Amino acid sequence: MHVVPSGEAYRDVDPMVDSTVAMTAEALQRSAVWQRMVDSSLPLMGRAAYLEQHWEGLRVLVQALETAGWAPELRAEMAEKVEALGGALDKAHATARWRDHHVTMPSMLQFRRRVNEMVESRDSVALDAHAIVRLAAVAACPIAGEPTAVSFPPVRSVHTEDQEEYFAEELSAAMLMVLAHGSDVCRSYPRQQRSTSCAVTAAAIRRALG
Predict the structure, then answer these.
(1) Statement: the pTM of the whole predicted model exceeds 0.90
(2) Where are the domains of the chain?
């Protein structure tokens, strides 16, 4: 268990965060789901389902941090991106009703279980690590186009060398969970021929995220 110590100075993990943001962007851009969005072989509903995983992941983490009362700056940044992604998906679906029955992939169920474990064990270090990676995924923008502007507040839960090592491990685990969403989407939505309508919708989502 990695609980926030009261009044203890935190370690500077900004270099680790910066490298993780860069690695997350590179990993997403090389992923199969990203390439399928670029060449328009991923159906429109597959694109929407992929963005819904990013939306849901951020939303789950915001709720977890609110429950724990931790990381207000990080929580505020994630809440803002939840709204941005939600608005983009409203436009993609042409309705907000998708929120009542959005797609939940197996990897998202696994992520939700992991978040519950972190909250129950009051594991602030792991929660912060997963929050950083989820924000990094949105910063990369999970579609072809300009990156989304994201602010990364300082991580204040890492206080010891052991916690710093654990933070690094959780960053890696979080990245694998994010990449798993793309694998689930690729398996769930067969390839299609290039579609002009999909390209138009992708452009609309990019504009909404910007």
Answers:
(1) no
(2) 22-209
The residues near 203 (Cβ < 8 Å, ≥ 6 apart) are 145
> Where do runs of H (alpha helix) occur along the chain?
14-30, 32-38, 44-68, 72-93, 106-120, 124-140, 161-188, 196-209
Name the residue with tokens 């994201």: 150
Give the whole-angstrom CA distance, residue 26 versus residue 33: 13
pLDDT, greater one: 99 or 129: 129
60: Cβ–Cβ under 8 A, 6 or more apart, which residues? 111, 112, 115
Q: How confident is the model over 124-167, as pLDDT tens digits?
A: 999 999 999 999 998 886 443 455 788 999 999 999 999 999 99
Superfamily of segment(s) 22-209: Heme oxygenase-like (1.20.910.10)
